[in-house]
Write a structure and sequence with these properties.
alpha/beta, 9 helices, six-stranded mixed sheet, single chain, globular
């Protein structure tokens, strides 16, 4: 089995305060797929992503990354395979400079500074923030912080890229640039988002969560045309699929 595969089987999780977050989640994501996780607040999206990186461990059922179940014994391998970009870049950027943030992961794996330098420069170049390498992260714009956070993950060379609300707090131009950046990655991508238009741009498949359960798992356009599912999940249609406010006609998905 490819190490790019992510498979959940009857996955359950309850927080210590008694909040039930996942209730029997099942799915299988294969190599190279781009998959959106959508749902209202509290649907279980972020909890599911945290399981993929081993920040949380299953209460019942299993989550597998390739051949490995996510558990305490496999955490080091899982975290080299799955790279997560958090919703708030300030949770991810904590070193004095952008360069040091990008270098932090591979240095902690035991690589020398000489080995790490080309990895960092390539990641910063790919995310178009190489010119900011000596800047402190708190001096960056929201879009620059997002790119720097992605670069800090790419230096670990993950097979699977997991992103939590990647377009949050971005202006329209930064959002467009982010979409083009993510399009260029050949990684398996799993994106939890409320930005349904971004999901249509980047993801061929969408999994809808509601109350910690999978409500629908299908091609993205099919999901977003299903008004009853969107209503149950407390979602609206993507803007491009909503009726034109002038003529009342439904917009074409390609526009």
């Amino acid at each position: 089995m490819s190490h790019h595969i992510v498979e959940a089987d009857n996955l359950h999780f309850t927080y210590p305060d008694g909040t039930v977050a996942l209730r029997g989640i099942c799915f299988r994501i294969t190599h190279g797929q781009s998959v959106a996780l959508v749902g209202g607040n509290g649907a279980g999206k972020s909890t599911l992503l945290l399981h993929m990186t081993g920040c949380l461990l299953p209460e019942k059922g299993t989550l597998r990354i390739g051949d490995l179940p996510v558990n305490r014994q496999t955490l080091s391998t899982i975290r080299r395979t799955v790279g997560m970009v958090f919703q708030d870049p300030d949770d991810q950027l904590f070193m004095p400079t952008v360069y040091e943030d990008a270098a932090f992961g591979p240095l902690n794996l035991g690589l020398s500074r000489q080995e790490v330098r080309p990895l960092v420069e390539e990641a910063l170049r790919r995310t178009e923030v190489l010119h900011l390498q000596n800047r402190p992260p708190f001096r960056l714009s929201a879009g620059e912080k997002r790119r720097a956070a992605i670069a800090s993950v790419l230096t670990m060379n993950p097979a699977i890229l997991v992103l939590d609300e990647p377009s949050a707090n971005l202006d329209p131009q930064a959002r467009r640039e982010l979409i083009e950046l993510l399009r260029s990655f050949e990684h398996t991508k799993i994106i939890a988002t409320h930005d349904l238009d971004l999901a249509m741009d980047l993801c061929q498949r969408t999994i809808v969560l509601e109350g910690g359960k999978v409500l629908m798992d299908a091609p993205t356009e099919e999901v977003f045309q299903n008004e009853s599912i969107l209503l149950k999940a407390r979602l609206g249609k993507p803007l491009r699929l909503q009726n034109c406010p002038v003529c009342g006609r439904e917009k074409s998905p390609s526009k």
